[in-house]
């Protein structure tokens, strides 16, 4: 069965909305079509008034230039086959018109195949980015979000960078690479969480028991690098096990290298 074209999708939308003109509509939802949309095309440029365009749950393989959507504020492309964020910089033929990205405030693009956060540069008004369950595997990609002046609400859960972390333990790493985040994975970021309480408790226990951190770690050289498993065994000696030990490790391993030195740990909790 051939895919649904964008023109056909708009025709179906018009029939569903009692003959309303899609060119005048501010909200257009072309979701979950059977057969699905596979290719975007320039007919979408006719939606000159649209503020919210949803194309979620189709089989779209790539983004295309849509210079006609000068009023677009919300773009939903979740659950497709998109591999790259692109074409948000395209401008209208009229040089005075802004790029599509210049008006965009929310981008919902979870459940795709995106591995890079390049292409968001033009989105100077973007405040919400949901890009969960993609293929982002490098923390350097998250650092790129700092170039977006209004972005504060992001969802990254389900990407390879989160592998091995709890949502709680990954927060300090996200905040290091993207300090502007205020809402992460649907939860407010306060800058203080249970990991901070754990570190404070651990420091207090070690000092109470041994008199100082140096004495607690006597026999372990500051330059000794340990894996999370090895770190867990050391923490078990101090009565810190399981998730708590893992959270303590990741509190120190902010770069996600999988190793920390004893000296770095002492410095982090000292």
UniProtKB/TrEMBL annotation:
A GO molecular-function annotation: calcium ion binding
- Kindly name one Pfam family recorded for this protein: LRR_4
What family, per the record?
Belongs to the dynein light chain LC1-type family.
- Kindly give the SUPFAM superfamilies that the UniProt entry links to this protein: L domain-like (SSF52058)
Disulfide bond listed as a keyword: no
A GO cellular component annotation in the UniProt record: microtubule
- Localisation per UniProt entry: Cytoplasm, Cytoskeleton, Cilium axoneme
Q: Where is the EF-hand domain?
A: 240-270
Keywords recorded for this protein, A-Z:
Cell projection, Cytoplasm, Cytoskeleton, Dynein, Leucine-rich repeat, Microtubule, Motor protein, Repeat
Q: What is this protein called?
A: Dynein axonemal light chain 1
Cytoplasm is among the record's keywords:
yes
